[in-house]
Structures are given as structure tokens and as C-alpha cells.
Design a protein that fits this description.
Layout (H helix, E strand, L loop, with lengths): L26 E6 L9 H13 L4 E6 L7 E3 L5 H4 L9 H4 L5 H20 L4 E4 L2 H15 L4 E3 L9 H7 L5 E4 L2 H10 L5 E3 L24 E5 L10 H9 L5 E5 L5 H11 L5 E4 L6 H6 L3 E4 L8 H8 L4 E4 L2 H7 L3 E4 L4 H12 L4 H8 L4 H22 L6
Parallel strand pairs: 1-2, 1-4, 2-3, 5-6, 6-7, 8-9, 8-11, 9-10, 11-12, 12-13
Length: about 400
């Protein structure tokens, strides 16, 4: 296993990462058909942030579902957000019931050939899929035809007994990036020959700050903020946050998110807290810094969270975090909040109350600074260069 460091590239000038013959920057193509469509997903935000920063070193393109910047190339497909309700129609649901997330299967199937054709017509020096096995399968086809190496980040870590990681390793990415050392060890035990680097996700410290404008959320202060997709089937467990805050008569809860069970959570919040202390709204991603600055603490009681960008965004905004006590959250949150057994409502409620009684702004901001996107992008730059150069060494020499 190799863990990339960032100190070795601090003094390297930008826009100078040329190919081996010095003719042009290496071309790197990131893939995520949900970007530009879903602005609340962690892997989508990672793809956009990395594309922006890697463009300082490479010629970078993001194959997206919709335009999300000058670097993006929208491909014709049906992103998961568009497919969600269609695959649950009574006439269609019986046909796809064997899939746990049929909307993602639709996205993978409809984006496969558009991405494949784009990469065959406009070859890359490295493919960097972010949409799990669908992107990996497409990239593996391109590699078989053109020899293009694959860099892949496992966003699911080793959750669910590592089933996603085991499946994705079958595609043999040329280099695997994982978010923590525990997942690196797990992957190494599964496939000892797999090149692995540990690089966490990051946060935009210039965008998410304690200073700046806020939004009037229409709730009485203090306000606890929860940012999550709203589904009773996912791992976010928003109902626990509603139940815990309801035990504190002077505290409000603002949920930022959307999903198939929004009406259920709205009804539960209205019943337990009332409209003066509870609200659900959605905001575009570029307005999220204002949302964080409008709250007093952040809480997300999810289970098996692969990483949790929202924790970094909250801490960068100066908010303390109250969350599940597990290895990943200890790594992310540290002393910038309170971790506890959120399934014990007495303990969870007390943690929220205690977090509201302190001043966490400085420690939260300092902790978030460990995950600066600019520094993390340098680590990715090193890995990309290493992967491209290694693949070119393995190519057969041209015959005359």
C-alpha cells in the first residue's frame, strides 16, 4: 500500500504537467452521469471539486449528466434522479424488483455507450470514474480497447462488509484510492497486489466559512441542522434527529434535503416539533454555505457513513457536530463535537444540549482545515502521474 503525501509537490508550478514528450498536458477524464443533476450527493461534489482543481495540472473533462462548469461534457443518459420515480411505477416496478437501486442501474445502462464512444473518439491518458461499478465497467472496456489506465476512488469504504469494494476490485483498477486506513487494510487483504493510496475527501475552505451572509430559516433559535437525503430505506436515520430535538423544547431542527419519503419526515417533524420548530427545504449547492451559517449545531445520526462531506462542510462553517460514535466519525470530527450512541435518545438529546452550550467555532474550523481540497488535489495529482507513467512503461515498444 502507498499513502500519498502532499509535501513533495508544494513547490511544483501549476499548468506544467506535460506528457512524457512535453507536447501537452495529460488528458484526464472523470466520469459521473449524476453530476450537474444531483447537487446533494457526496460523490458528485467530489467529482466536481476534483475536476476544478486538477484542471490546474492536466487537461481535464468531466462526463456529466448536465452542465456543471466549463470543464463538463454533458452526455445523453437518464441520471438516477430522473429515473427514481419511473422505476417505481406500478407497471415497471415488478420488472426491476431484483435490483436494490434500479434507478442507478438505469443510469449505468444509459450512460455506458455515450461515455464509451466519447472516450474512444476523444482518448484520455487516464479514466477516473466516480459512479461505482457502472463507470468501472465502461472504463474497463476502454482499457481493453486502448490500454487507458483506470484510477478509482472507493466512496463506499468497507461498509456493508466490503461488498461494494470486493465487487469493484474485480474490475482491476490500475490504482485504487480509499478514504481511510481501515479500508486500505481491508482492500490489501482482499488483493495484496492492488496499488492503493489513502486520500480523504475534502472541503472548500474558501466557500464554507463562519463569516458571510446567512438565511432566515423561519425557526426559533437555537437551530440544529441536518443535511441528508430523505428515505426511510437509507442509512441517514433522520427520524432519530427529529425525535432527539423534540425532547429539547427550546431547540428547532432544520432538515436540508429531499427524497422519496420527504412527506413522511415532514409529517413526523410537524407532529413532534410543530411548524415553529421544524422545517424541510432544499437549496442549490452554491447556497449551502449560507445554510450552515444559519444554524447553531450540525447533526446527522447516520449509520455506516462511508465518509460524510457534510461533516466537513459544517465544521468549516464553524459548527460543532453531534453524530454517531464510530471509527470514521472519530477520524473526521475529532474534538470538534460530540460523538455518542445516537440510538439512545437520552444520550443523543444530552449531546445536542451540551454541544449548544459551548463555543466550538475555532476548533471546528481548525479541524476542517485538515481536509483542504487544494492539498488533497495535490495528492491526487501525484497518483494520476504515477498511474499514467506506469501504464506507459508497460506499453509495448512500437515496431518499425
Amino acid at each position: 500500500m502507498t499513502q500519498q503525501t502532499i509535501s513533495s509537490t508544494k513547490n511544483t508550478p501549476k499548468n506544467t504537467t506535460l506528457n512524457a514528450r512535453g507536447e501537452r498536458p495529460y488528458r484526464v477524464v472523470l466520469v459521473h452521469p449524476s453530476t450537474g443533476v444531483n447537487w446533494s450527493g457526496g460523490s458528485e461534489i467530489v467529482a466536481i471539486e476534483l475536476t476544478r482543481r486538477l484542471s490546474s495540472y492536466f487537461e481535464v473533462e468531466l462526463l456529466s449528466g448536465a452542465a456543471c462548469g466549463s470543464f463538463s461534457y454533458p452526455i445523453p443518459c437518464i441520471p438516477r434522479s430522473y429515473a427514481y420515480h419511473a422505476v417505481r411505477h406500478p407497471l415497471i416496478a415488478p420488472l426491476v424488483r431484483q435490483f436494490s437501486t434500479p434507478e442507478i442501474v438505469v443510469e449505468h445502462l444509459t450512460s455506458f455507450f455515450p461515455c464509451l464512444l466519447r472516450l474512444l473518439k476523444h482518448p484520455a491518458d487516464l479514466i477516473f470514474p466516480h459512479n461505482d461499478y457502472g463507470g468501472l465497467a465502461m472504463a474497463a472496456c476502454v482499457r481493453a480497447l486502448r490500454g487507458t489506465p483506470i484510477l478509482f476512488t472507493e466512496h463506499n469504504s468497507s461498509n456493508a462488509d466490503g461488498k461494494c469494494l470486493q465487487r469493484n476490485l474485480r474490475f482491476r483498477p490500475d490504482h485504487l484510492v480509499v478514504l481511510d486506513e481501515a479500508t486500505a487494510t481491508f482492500a490489501h487483504n482482499l488483493k495484496p497486489t492492488q496499488p492503493i493510496s489513502v486520500i480523504p475527501n475534502g472541503v472548500n475552505l474558501e466557500q464554507f466559512t463562519p463569516e458571510g451572509t446567512a438565511i432566515n430559516l423561519g425557526l426559533s433559535r437555537p437551530i440544529a441542522l441536518c443535511v441528508a437525503s430523505l428515505s426511510r430505506k437509507n442509512h441517514k436515520r433522520v427520524e432519530l434527529a427529529i425525535q432527539a430535538v423534540a425532547r429539547l423544547p427550546d431547540v428547532s431542527l432544520f432538515v436540508c434535503g429531499d427524497g422519496p419519503d420527504r412527506a413522511y419526515f415532514q409529517a413526523l417533524g410537524d407532529e413532534l416539533l410543530g411548524p415553529q420548530r421544524f422545517a424541510i427545504r432544499t437549496f442549490p449547492h452554491d447556497q449551502m454555505p449560507e445554510v450552515y451559517r444559519s444554524a447553531d449545531i450540525f447533526t446527522l445520526p447516520s449509520v455506516d457513513e462511508p465518509f460524510g462531506l457534510v461533516y466537513l462542510e459544517a465544521m468549516a462553517s464553524g459548527l460543532p457536530v453531534v453524530a454517531t460514535d464510530d471509527e470514521m466519525r472519530r477520524y473526521l470530527v475529532g474534538d470538534s463535537g460530540i460523538l455518542c450512541d445516537v440510538t439512545n435518545l437520552d444520550v443523543y438529546t444530552t449531546a445536542i444540549k451540551d454541544a449548544l452550550s459551548g463555543d466550538w467555532s475555532v476548533s471546528a474550523r481548525q479541524n476542517a482545515a485538515r481536509f483542504s481540497w487544494d492539498a488533497i488535489a495535490l495528492s491526487y495529482r501525484d497518483v494520476i502521474l504515477e498511474t499514467i507513467l506506469h501504464s506507459k512503461k508497460e506499453l509495448p515498444l512500437p515496431t518499425h
